[in-house]
Specification:
mainly alpha; 22 helices; 2 strands; about 60% helix
Length: about 525
């Protein structure tokens, strides 16, 4: 009897169902989440330490077991089989269900933590009370919604990081950078701030400080209450404040010059860490259209200008006018900001003008004119700096960018928009590092056009929406401000066409020197570049 084949797809049948081990591990992980759900419904557990341990261990073990069942019996190499056929990774029903659930959780976490059991007075209840034993163990304080968030965030990065390393175990670079983000999230973002809080009252007065969170991501660093906390903490607090300023003007430019923005976005940043680990199955969903690229350029730099204005207004609001008391008066600060921005834009225009697109040059001039005009308008009219009260700007930025964009949309909708929506369109830190990478860094991704077979893996799995294949086909170096140097394009290339390098700046951007397979002067060109 003949068999009728209904599948007309050239890519073959849909992937097989998950195996028995994957089903059991999924049940284990879901049981841990079910305990958290019961706690969220205000069901009280008699022994919170026991049930919290069971929940977190079940979630962690379930993810690790699922990863082992998925990849342990496969040879090292590219493993994205059937990813476009699965409901969870192709914007299907499950993807929308998970996206809506995550978004709802973020909305409650950010804006309605009382529904999770947070109490301003008295003991916590519900989900947050379940985390009280762990919080008291680490910091000596009851849990908050941010402690719950930080705990789950860290578990996700570490557990899915192990899964990621199992998947890309053929690539040493991917394993190293995943270990790096796991370490920085666990130590710098989670444990060290909690230990610092525990030291308070025992001869110390330390502010809560994530050492890897640099302005403008840490947009509240220069607010009055934060500066007061640093100063009141004595020598350690002042050292932390100086470290924060040095991170902006010294550490970040040097590291970006040497290694590109990948040193932060793919090796340190918690947002990038979650996107690379938990968000890895969704990297192919990033929008690759030209329209998305144009929107990205304008939106992300507009966010950067916004955070610069907001921070300037906040600092300006608590400075004084009396030069006899402090040398840094409001006038000195404002004039300094104007001069600094003017010098930055003038330097880029004079030395790097040819490396910028026409709209980028005009956009930079337009933003500078806006900032300088607002400063001038303030002096002539006496109105609030940048037209709004500094606190209004801060609240608006914190709500729209810090909460809605980075949390609710950026993370909640991984299964719909891809894993790097926040990094592409909203992160001001990515905008600063991207400008430095595009104009002053030694980092680039080199290509061997003669070996490219145009399979498209590199472009498909670029989470930043870069058409990597177009560069590879022409043999061009890939130098893009949006590239986070994750190296996945190189990892999934079956021909070894792409290589992440930190060479000299000579011939870094060389679109006119396409290296083709039939180029009779190929050896001469290689010899010239090696000198």
């Amino acid at each position: 009897m003949s068999r009728i084949e209904h599948n007309m797809s050239l890519t073959g049948d849909a992937p097989k169902a998950i195996n028995t081990q994957q089903k059991i591990s999924t049940l284990l992980g879901m049981s841990g989440l079910f305990i958290l759900l019961l706690a969220s419904l205000n069901i009280s557990f008699p022994n919170k330490t026991f049930w919290l341990s069971i929940s977190l261990i079940s979630i962690f073990a379930g993810i690790i077991w699922f990863a082992k069942a998925s990849y342990s019996d496969k040879h090292p190499g590219i493993k994205n089989d059937g990813i476009w056929f699965k409901s969870m990774t192709n914007r299907g029903f499950l993807a929308w269900l998970v996206g809506i659930a995550l978004t709802g959780f973020y909305i409650i976490l950010y804006f309605y933590p009382q529904y999770l059991g947070l109490r301003a007075e008295g003991e916590n209840t519900g989900l947050i009370a379940l985390f009280d034993p762990l919080s008291k163990l680490l910091s000596g304080n009851p849990a908050s919604q941010w402690f719950v968030y930080g705990t789950l965030y860290t578990i996700a990065i570490v557990a899915f990081g192990v899964k990621f390393m199992w998947k890309y175990r053929h690539n040493r670079y991917e394993k190293l950078r995943t270990i790096s983000v796991m370490f920085f999230q666990t130590a710098f973002a989670f444990l060290i701030p909690e230990f610092m809080a525990r030291l308070n009252g025992k001869g110390f007065s330390l502010p809560y400080y994530d050492l890897k969170n640099i302005w403008p991501l840490n947009y509240y660093m220069f607010e009055q209450y934060r500066v007061d906390e640093f100063i009141s903490a004595g020598t350690i607090g002042v050292a932390l404040l100086i470290f924060g300023v040095a991170s902006i003007f010294i550490i970040t430019p040097i590291l970006t010059y040497k290694y590109g923005k990948r040193w932060y976005c793919s090796w340190v940043c918690g947002c990038g860490g979650l996107a690379e680990t938990a968000g890895d199955p969704y990297r192919h969903l990033s929008d690759k259209s030209l329209f998305a690229w144009k929107v990205e350029r304008w939106v992300i730099h507009s966010v950067l200008v916004f955070v610069v204005l907001m921070t300037t207004a906040v600092i300006y609001s608590y400075l004084g006018y009396d030069a006899d008391k402090y040398w840094l008066t409001r006038d000195v600060f404002l004039i300094g900001v104007g001069v600094f921005l003017t010098l930055i834009f003038a330097g880029i225009w004079f030395f790097k003008r040819e490396e910028l697109e026409k709209d980028a040059r005009y956009g930079a001039i337009g933003y500078l004119v806006i900032v300088i005009s607002l400063i001038g308008f303030h002096y002539m009219s006496g109105f609030n700096l940048f037209l709004f009260n500094a606190e209004t700007l801060r609240v608006f930025y914190g709500f729209l960018i810090g909460s809605i964009f980075s949390g609710v949309i950026g993370t909640g909708f991984y299964p719909i928009f891809g894993s790097r929506v926040w990094c592409r369109f909203g992160c001001p830190m990515a905008a600063i590092l991207g400008m430095q990478q595009r104009l002053f860094s030694k980092f680039r991704i080199t290509t061997n056009g003669g070996q490219c077979i145009s399979c498209g893996n590199c472009s498909t799995y670029c989470e930043m929406g870069i058409d990597v294949r177009a560069y590879a086909q022409k043999g061009e170096n890939i130098v893009r401000s949006s590239c986070v140097g994750c190296g996945i394009c190189s990892a999934v290339c079956p021909r070894g066409v792409l290589k992440l390098e930190n060479g000299s700046q000579k011939n870094r951007i060389s679109s006119e020197e396409a290296v083709l397979g039939d180029n009779v002067d190929l050896l001469d060109l290689i010899n010239q570049k090696s000198k």
